[in-house]
Amino acid sequence: MDKFVIEGGKILNGSITASGAKNSVLPILAASIMTDSKSVIHGVPKLQDVYTMVKILEYLGAKVVFKNNTIEIDPSTIARYDAPYEFVKTMRASISLLGPMVARAGKARFSLPGGCVIGPRPIDLHIKGLQKLGVDIKIEDGFIVADAKNGLKGNYIFLAGAFGSSVLATANVMCVAALSKGETVIEFAACEPEITDLANFLVKMGAKITGIGSPCIIINGVKKLKGVEHKIIPDRIETGTFLLAGAITGGKVTVEKCQPMHLGAFIERLTETGVQVKSGKNYITVSGIPRWKPVDVVTFAYPGFPTDLQAQMMAFLSLADGVSVITEKVFPERFIHAGELNRLGANIQLDGSKAIVKGVEKLLGAKVMASDLRASAALVLAGLVAEGRTEVSRIYHLFRGYEKFEEKLRALGASIKREKDTLQ
Ligand code: EPZ
Q1: pLDDT at 201
Q2: Are residues 213 and 289 in the same domain?
């Protein structure tokens, strides 16, 4: 396995370009199988999760060509409607294929995804939503067995659980509703920009969807969809991660070709720390300061502060001039990065779904271990500013969601290199 070796203390300056959004391309690739005609998707980031999704699509029988950030998919040869555990356990987001499979063929046999380090990842809302559309669902030997033998019929669906809306359950239900008979109303739908991107893709395919981007999405089913050309929106989580790389090192960093309006809550909290944030039509510039103020952060579904930027913000706040309280309302257990940040000299105490982050004067380089995608990014951010050398092991987590991560950091002046991790 590989590790990152980072020499801390370099001030990051300059600009990078945002890649396409991982959490948009995955459900859109899944939705592209809901027709027999070809789709062409541009702005696709070269990420491990995208390669995994391509592998699953090819396993199902689709023809997929992925080059120069463009994917061409021909779903006409798909002949399987099952997703084995081997695929699903490596990427929970493969669940976004469940709806499109049922919409395309009226059936699916899907391994239950299980949990992951950020918490149990239930799929009760996905199941409830599909059942409301006429899908018969059984759980057998660790598999979801879905069968729409009586056809798909629109319905009113309140699609939220104890933790609010669900991004991929909204994606699955919207896909099935697009090819169901009659009208479907999804109440308390996820409003994430990636869901808006998926809805826009479905509308291009011929779906009839209104209320896009709102918590109430109305879909009038159609008989058929067609393959289309589409460009993926920029990745707001990658954008926020690089802005924090500039802020934490006290530098001036611009992320170009991003969508500032997708980062309202993040920009508001970052500005509250005293860091200067300037946004234009498709760029955001952050100008770091020597010491910043603590702020409280609560994660919520969009448009709230994104849970996927919580770990990175925690790394930044570990050096604030005071105490910040971070509350996780989406994944209450998503704090695995706190222990590793404390190894770098941070002072973070956990109390259930809250993390009390007492700002320290400095962080000291050490060996730390990545555990999930966004926690890994937080450890790299801390390593950029920690005194001396930081080694982050198990960086394969990072390549799931960040395209050219170390190249982009080096372009901003970071001292970061990838080495073989002989001890792992
Ligand atoms: C998506 O996951 C993202 N992944 C996650 O990003 C992101 O953290 C999450 O949304 C929240 O924004 C992709 O889009 C591929 P949810 P998803 O269903 O859809 C509960 C990353 O780092 N819930 O919106 O699986 C759930 O436990 C990844 O890029 C149910 O109770 O998340 C959580 O508390 C990590 N029942 C809340 O809803 C369900 O059936 C939100 O989860 C489904 C979810």
Answers
A1: 98
A2: no
Q: What is the pLDDT of residues 208-221, one digit of tens each?
A: 999 999 999 999 99
Four-residue CA torsion sign, 42, 46, 52, 55:
positive
Tokens 């941070």, located at residue: 346
* Atom 26, ligand 1: residue with shortest CA distance: 121
Name residues whose C-beta falls within 8 Å of residue 418's C-beta, 6 or more positions apart in sequence: 2, 3, 4, 5, 395, 406
Rounded-to-integer distance, Cα 174 and Cα 209, Å: 9
- Distance (angstroms) between ligand 1 centre and the Cα of 161 equals 11
Tell me the average pLDDT across 97-117: 91
pLDDT digits (tens, 9 = 90+) for 18-69: 999 999 999 999 999 999 999 999 999 999 999 999 999 999 999 999 999 9
Among 121, 174, 263, 312, residue to substitute to test ligand 1 (most atoms within 8 Å of Cβ) = 121
Bridge partner residues of 108 (DSSP) = 146
pTM: 0.97
Instruction: Fill in the amino acid letter for 39.
Output: S
State which H helix or E strand residue 355 sits in. strand 354-358
Residue 156 and residue 213 share a domain: yes
Q: How many Å from the N-terminal Cα to the C-terminal Cα in the chain?
A: 6
What is the CB < 6 Å shell around ligand 1?
22-23, 26, 93, 121-126, 161, 163, 166-169, 190, 307-308, 330-331, 373-374, 401
| Radius of gyration of the chain measured on its C-alpha atoms | 21
Q: By residue range, what is the domain housing residue 208?
A: 22-231
Paired tokens of 155: 């319905």
Of 204, 231, 258, the residue at which a domain comes to its end is 231
